């Protein structure tokens, strides 16, 4: 597989899905700027990925906030200086909380919408401007969720943010396509990351996950998402834009399970 650029930015890259995506892009020979919030964690991840890559590509860490335009601009400038103008952007950073609508705090709603929707907007805007100025093509992959298609109690704000991200991505694909910039979405189901594993999420709802997933396992792995991202950033997908790939074992075919009930059993 040949990626369209030898330089990329991955947000939320310190662990979990973002780390898996960065590792896969590096395996394909693309240098990656690891954008995240905590410098020490990013440093450790960069060291690990550089060791695994064995010289095929380089990871450089950058600590910043995806919701701050100045941090986004500095991150892109740093990537260009260290790795060359990035032609690939993966908006993976996100956050999630659970609360019934009647109990949902305004600050919590704002935080989820800001990270999950404003962050990708800021990065796509700055990334596209840099490519337009250089007259270069590019590829954006926004990491959404099964929640962009389905609903579950206790996650109104999260579902709304991911549905918004899907529509934002389609409009971006319309506007940027004429400039050779493709914009697509990968929508994961439940993926086994340290956060999910430590919360015991899969163990509590294993039976329902299995019942709703045609491919017959409760969750996927970061590498499953990374494979879809790599494809959408490759020359093999040069005629694809404005599309969503669901990477959830077919879970979307039956709709979302009730996460709220699964995590908050009565009694």
UniProtKB/TrEMBL annotation:
Keywords of the record: Oxidoreductase
Record's keyword annotation contains Oxidoreductase: yes
An example molecular function term from Gene Ontology annotations: quinone binding
Domain Ketoreductase positions: 6-194
InterPro entries found in the cross-reference section: KR_dom, NAD(P)-bd_dom_sf, Sc_DH/Rdtase_CS, SDR_fam
Pfam families: adh_short_C2
Xref: CDD domains: SDR_c (cd05233)
GO biological process terms, semicolon-separated: fatty acid biosynthetic process
NCBIfam families referenced in this protein's UniProt entry, alphabetically: PRK07231.1
Family: Belongs to the short-chain dehydrogenases/reductases (SDR) family.
Protein's recorded name: 3-oxoacyl-[acyl-carrier protein] reductase
């Amino acid at each position: 597989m040949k990626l369209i650029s030898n330089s990329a930015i991955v947000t939320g890259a310190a662990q979990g899905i973002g780390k898996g995506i960065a590792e896969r892009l590096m395996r394909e020979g693309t240098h990656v700027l690891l954008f995240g919030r905590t410098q020490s964690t990013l440093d450790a991840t960069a060291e690990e990925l550089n060791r695994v890559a064995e010289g095929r590509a380089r990871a450089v860490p950058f600590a910043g906030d995806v919701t701050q335009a100045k941090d986004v601009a500095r991150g892109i400038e740093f990537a260009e200086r260290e790795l060359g103008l990035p032609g690939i952007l993966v908006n993976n950073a996100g956050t999630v909380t659970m609360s019934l609508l009647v109990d949902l705090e305004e600050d919590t709603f704002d935080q989820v919408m800001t990270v999950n929707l404003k962050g990708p907007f800021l990065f796509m805007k700055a990334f596209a401007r840099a490519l337009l100025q250089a007259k270069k093509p590019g590829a954006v992959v926004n990491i959404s969720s099964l929640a962009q298609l389905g609903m579950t109690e206790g996650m109104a704000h999260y579902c709304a943010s991911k549905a918004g991200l899907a529509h934002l991505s389609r409009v971006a694909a319309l506007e940027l396509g004429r400039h050779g910039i493709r914009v697509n979405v990968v929508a994961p189901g439940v993926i086994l990351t340290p956060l999910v594993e430590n919360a015991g999420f899969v163990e509590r709802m294993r039976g329902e996950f299995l019942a709703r997933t045609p491919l017959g396992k409760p969750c996927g792995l970061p590498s499953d998402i990374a494979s879809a991202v790599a494809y959408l950033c490759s020359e093999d997908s040069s005629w694809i834009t404005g599309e969503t790939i669901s990477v959830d074992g077919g879970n979307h075919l039956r709709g979302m399970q009730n996460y709220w009930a699964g995590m908050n059993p009565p009694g």
